[in-house]
Design goal:
alpha/beta; Arc Repressor Mutant, subunit A; five-stranded mixed sheet; 13 helices; Nucleotidyltransferase, domain 5; homodimer; DNA-binding; 395 residues; 3 domains
Chain lengths: 395, 395
DNA sequence: ATTCTTTGTTTATCCTATAAACTAAGTTTA
DNA sequence: TAAACTTAGTTTATAGGATAAACAAAGAAT
């Protein structure tokens, strides 16, 4: 039983092929000669790898480039249409599905609203959305390479949904269900992890090695990216920063803990506070929209609540920065719609509470992918996996 | 300018040599044949690597093993005396230095107390300790391979001490000073990072991939180990979990934040509380020892304070577990002396506040290296670096 | 038109892992 | 006790891949 990856000729080849491929993906269009110069690989090696990659449809020759005093270079380019990926944002009352190319560009999009979160009902809609997207996928060498689904709950290392409180699901093996139905590799992960992955690859966190994505919706979830990789903890359920205590003897949270951050800084916290202040009628269906409208009209009570929300968000962000010393913190999900009104109190708290060193070394950003954050993130899992299967790196 | 590590024959050789070396270090004594079977490397390859490693003094033939029905195997063993490492625990009022072999065994030890934390004075004692340890190092193929120093303060990516509040140091380039003096590679890091690294290699966290080391002394520092590596954040100053807010509108901390964990759960918090309750006279020199004595005699006031301390420690530990989902949390530094009295309230809080899943997947341990934790940890930096320079791994 | 540059391919060589053959040295069996 | 069998470790011939150097292709400069 050979478990360790030992070194042989094959490994060397894979590694160098990865180097060439990565270079073209990130720096392309680029010539063979340039790749050789920049990577240190011999021209002959680059040529061999390039022709194999062309054969595999991962790259193609886009045409001739400008001469710099000699023969014109042939430019190589990443083939973002070698395959397509499906990403699903499975919300509490909606499903948002996207079909993306290998660069994370959205090709097709499909939305459904859910009025019942019972498993069978959701699975029905889910498979319908996926089926439709599969059908819409253009013909390509590798077809639909994978399906990714971001869910509002805890997912363990084996992609099993342990607990999704707002869907009222427990122990659901969604991966198995989808794979049995479509026979396409499927990845299930927490919505915050999906968002983090997506923002890092294609959004507000491009090329950031250490970033924390904070998804503030009904609750607060976080995706932790460390050294360019999603950190999922020893059992796959890290990043429950929404359940970090910020009031030691605060009120009990359904999670078991007390004084959790999300009790003070989430959409739910905002809505509850607004109702208590009679700024909103109870269980208003479109509470958020209503509050935005009021804020735009300058309702002082609402503005005060938003200010308070921002301050509490800030307190949690200070904790995140002190804990992780990340380069960037990205704030995403529905709360990002209030950016205009919460950015000031957030900045104020950071200004007041962070050490000078952290202040000048951390940036707070808002999601760039917006409402597609989770769906693109979910799609990006399959893209990364697909491309990484062809990749090796050395430490 | 070749910056990327490309694949070639040399890489393959290094990688396989690493595999053989690692195997012998962790599973030795072991025969060439066994290594071949377990790693999947060809017998011939193992033989070649073994003879080179013997030549380099990294391993040696320890003698013949038991026959299993054929020729007796020749057992190979890790040479932990190929070199020695110096580790220093630079405390606020003491210096503890150790000389360790390549397995982290303490060969020599030296302590000094400091009555003045002025830079010049400390440097004087520090160099004296190092010089003495260098002299005591046995003759070996690689001599003293490095010096590691754990300091009570923030250290950036370039080993510069940014701020050590209790020493009242700012912007000290200790690495430069020591290297200029001894011409031995030197590594400076935060004491909690040193402790974390040490406990993972040789203490309570052996073979744990994800662990958090919580050093509770005057303040609280933490060392974060993720995927077997120390995580130091984007600028080298992560793990300030002592400054995570657990009381959103708590009192101001010198760090700038409010309601920081260490204001409630550190040695200083304990001493202050004890003084306020008149359980201890003000600025008692041996406050901790005094409290331990009182606790042993069953002083109810002291026991109550310790209980409270344990609960606050527990609250922070819940935050850590929710944030990182680590396999193990190790509690170290002086507070570990109170283990007996704080373990119950800690467990109680965890029992009450953690989710069932986390409860059954996380273990709280106390430091195994005890007072040598930081010094051995500091020494282990050089050992890891020395051995890893000879190592390559593939992802 | 000739010379110089740059791009990309071909070729001979070197390095390393490997399988297979081989030597060494033990145990088991009859 | 000798023959057969096992296991350990080394030697040898071979294969795969990177590389430098030579070469071919194609353009720019003079």
């Amino acid at each position: 039983m050979k478990t360790i990856r030992t070194g042989d000729q094959n490994l060397v080849k894979q590694l160098n092929k990865s180097i060439v491929f990565n270079f073209i993906e990130h720096k392309g269009p680029v010539s063979r000669a340039q790749i050789s110069k920049d990577t240190g690989l011999n021209k002959a090696t680059v040529s061999t790898m390039a022709s194999e990659l062309i054969n595999d449809s991962f790259i193609y020759e886009i045409g001739e480039g400008q001469s710099s005093g000699g023969r014109k270079p042939v430019m190589l380019y990443f083939n973002n249409h070698a395959g397509y990926s499906i990403g699903i944002d499975l919300g509490v009352n909606y499903i948002l599905g996207v079909l993306s190319d290998l660069r994370g560009n959205i090709i097709e999009e499909e939305t459904r609203s859910l009025n019942d979160s019972k498993l069978d009902n959701v699975i029905g809609h889910l498979t319908a959305v996926i089926e439709s997207l599969v059908k819409k996928a253009p013909v390509s060498p590798y077809g639909v390479i994978g399906i990714g689904i971001g869910v509002p709950g805890n997912v363990d290392k084996d992609d099993k949904i342990l607990f999704a409180p707002n869907l009222n699901w427990k122990q659901v093996d969604l991966k198995q269900i989808i794979e049995n139905r479509f026979h396409i590799p499927t990845k299930i992960d927490n919505e915050a992890n999906a968002g983090a992955h997506g923002e890092r690859l294609y959004g507000a966190g491009k090329n950031i090695a250490n970033l924390i994505y904070v998804s503030i919706g009904i609750g607060i979830g976080t995706g932790i990216i460390i050294n360019n990789n999603l950190y999922t903890g020893s059992s796959g359920i890290s990043g429950e920063l929404g359940h970090v205590t910020i009031e030691a003897s605060g009120r009990k949270c359904p999670c078991g803990n007390r004084g959790c951050w999300e009790l003070y800084a989430s959409e739910k916290a905002l809505l509850t506070a607004a109702e208590e202040q009679h700024l909103l009628e109870k269980d208003h269906a479109e509470g958020l929209d209503c509050l935005i409208k009021e804020a735009q009209m300058g309702n002082p009570g609402v503005l005060q609540q938003l200010n308070r929300l921002g301050e509490y968000i800030g307190i949690g962000l200070v904790n995140i920065v002190n804990t992780f010393n990340p380069e960037v913190v990205v704030i995403g999900n529905r709360i990002a719609r209030f950016k205009h009104w919460i950015i000031n109190p957030i900045t104020h708290i950071l200004e007041e509470r962070l050490s000078p060193y952290h202040k000048s070394n951390t940036e707070i950003r808002f999601s760039e992918l917006g409402k597609h954050s989770i769906a693109i993130g979910a799609a990006s899992f399959s893209i990364s996996k697909f491309l990484e299967d062809k990749r090796v790196s050395v430490q």
